[in-house]
Amino acid sequence: MLTRLQRHYRSRHTAPTSTLVHTPHPYARLLGLTAVVLCGAWLGLLIVGSVRTPVGPVDATMTLRASAAGGTKINVSPLGALELDTHTAPVRLDVDVDQLDPVRSQALVEHPERLSGLQEEIAEDVADGATELAVRSCVAVVSGATALGLAVYRRPRRALAAGGLALALLTVSGISAYVTWNPKSVLEPRFSGLLSSAPSVVGNARSIVSEFDVYQKELARLVTNVTKLYDATSSLPTYQPDPATMRVLHVSDIHLNPASWHIIGSLVEQYDIDVIIDSGDTMDHGTAAENGFLDPISDLGAPYVWVRGNHDSAATQRYLERLKGVHVLDEGRAVTVAGLRIAGTGDPQFTPDRSVEPQGDPAERMAGIRLASALRDQKRAGTPVDIAVAHNPVAARETDGTVPLVLAGHIHNRKNEVLDQGTRLKIEGSTGGGGLRALQNEKPEKVRASVLYLDRTTRRLQAWDEITLGGLGLTTAEVSRHLPKENRP
After folding, report:
1. Could you tell me if 385 and 343 are in contact, meaning their C-beta atoms sit under 8 angstroms apart?
2. What is the pLDDT of residue 216?
3. Residue 467: which of 264, 216, 290, 177 has the closest Cα?
4. How far apart are the first and last CA of the chain?
5. Rounded CA gap, 330 and 309, in Å?
6. Is the dihedral of CA 201, 206, 210, 213 positive or negative?
7. Is 387 helix (H, G, I), strand (E, B) or coil?
8. CB 3.0-4.6 Å disulfide test: which of 182, 246, 327, 410 passes with 454?
């Protein structure tokens, strides 16, 4: 009897206490579930929601991030970043350019013609990476939300609900990004960091793609057409080179501009060039990866005489020495090419090497003095030199009185003068339009080369044509003929 009364008492006093347990409001439960889903999805993306993929010659990491504004951010460390308004959605695509792949970049250097298909290759790489990223992001978001839901609620049903809600939110974000996708956003990027000066340096993306492509394809044809026009309409009858005249093409400071080979090849064909003389700075940094850029020299249609510039390394020189049809001159070495005796010396300084302090003009003068001594030795040996070559005009001036003509470059500007003891110094501008340095200038640097006409008997300069082309993105050309003072009527 007592036990029955105790059970009755307990039932009357314990039942009401169970009604004191607080039941969450449905909106609060939904808000809590949403917070769990968002945190879990964010953690999932943070841990496994990224893809490392090749994009053209670089390796990049693509990641989806939570964002209120959406869009795409491309980080190019350490230069800065550029942001594109590609879409409106609560997710942002981050692309981190990690490093330049040496194998793929060297393949581009060795085969510049692949640049024409680089755009399609990059588009395919980005599409493949984006597809892999979409799959991985779905797995990351659902897994992260489900795992955190299980940890918080400790109920499989609630955890699965969190995973399903995460997948629904990601699907809605994807649809929003697809509907608002703006492919033209690449034409109006926002730059930050060191890249913030890029718009003023290179202009908008539309002009880069269209004008540079036209520039590189049409420049050689422009040279051909202007040359023919000059031959047909020249009003300078004071000097008409006959077929026996020796023709030398002087080029300099190409600085890795692949369009230069098309220009030089066209000039060789149009002017029937006997020999090409390059007074250096064919490269930009002198690295081994750049060496493949030199391969077209063997197919230019004329012997190629070369001296080292301050941007050409010893590795560059060794590579050129192995190329067919190339004559590398250094330390006063002389060769006879196409009936001309030519001697030259390489620049004593390699300025891209920041570990070595440049010695400046004194080193250049010493190189010029050694070249002048070699020229005197050649004359005493009965093999006088017709043309001397040095990269820096400071070195070239030291040959005054030892040779009729000395060629130089380096300053990216044409100069022509007769030195005190009778040697004519001809300094050529940049045949590569300054290379990539053209982008650093307010106005494009012009492309310059000269055709020298020499008498076959005396080996003396009779006249020269200066070819000047508009710089990067410009299509203007000028050909002008000049006579040395002693050859004017």
Report:
1. yes
2. 47
3. 264
4. 146
5. 11
6. positive
7. strand
8. 246
Query: What residues of the chain score a pLDDT lower than 70?
Result: 1-25, 76-82, 99-102, 104-120, 122-123, 183-243, 355, 436-443, 471-476, 486-489
Segment 59-111, tens digit of pLDDT: 788 888 777 778 888 776 655 666 778 888 888 888 887 766 667 666 665 66
CA distance 63 to 48: 9
Peptide bond connecting 189 to the previous residue in cis, omega within 30 degrees of 0: no
Q: Which two tokens stand for residue 350?
A: 């390699």
Instruction: From residue 370, give the alpha-carbon distance in Å to each of 30, 206, 225, 344, 376.
Output: 87, 51, 43, 10, 10
- pTM for this prediction: 0.56
Amino acid at 439: L
Spatial separation of the C-alpha atoms in residues 65 and 45, rounded to whole Å: 7
Hunting for tokens 């090409």 — which residue is that?
276
Alpha carbon separation from 433 to 148, 192, 379, 437 (Å, rounded): 60, 28, 37, 8
The tens digit of pLDDT for each residue in 286-295 reads 888 889 999 9
Tokens found for residue 126: 């980005």
Instruction: For residue 455, give both structure tokens.
Output: 């008498």
Give the DSSP H or E segment for 377.
Answer: helix 361-380
Give start and end residues of each alpha helix (H) in 49-117: 102-110
CA–CA gap between residue 75 and residue 84 (Å, rounded): 11
pLDDT at 239: 60
Give me the pLDDT at residue 71, please: 82
CB within 8 Å of 158: residues ≥ 6 apart: 33, 149, 150, 152
Q: How far apart are CA 435 and CA 255, in angstroms?
A: 5
